[in-house]
Structure to design on (90 residues):
């Protein structure tokens, strides 16, 4: 989260709301958020294709590379697709 030095107080209040004031029982809202994440992942190849390829290629060089690929690469996109498919059918 980025903010100006003089905006620390409102930024911390917003962060507190984001972390502690979420209603995780609102299935419609969770589905909406998941669909937004899916949309982001589907457009990533056009905006971050090189990054995806680099993470995928680097997964075999180190444990950090493997984790980077799992969290930010194609496995994450596959997971989002699977979860969003389940959310639509529920």
């Amino acid at each position: 989260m980025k903010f100006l030095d003089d905006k620390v107080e409102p930024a911390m209040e917003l962060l507190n709301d984001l972390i502690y004031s979420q209603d995780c029982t609102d299935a419609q809202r969770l589905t909406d958020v998941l669909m937004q994440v899916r949309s982001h992942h589907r457009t990533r190849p056009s905006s971050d294709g090189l990054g995806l390829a680099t993470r995928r290629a680097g997964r075999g060089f180190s444990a950090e590379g493997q984790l980077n690929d799992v969290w930010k690469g194609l496995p994450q996109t596959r997971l989002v697709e699977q979860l969003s498919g389940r959310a639509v059918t529920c």
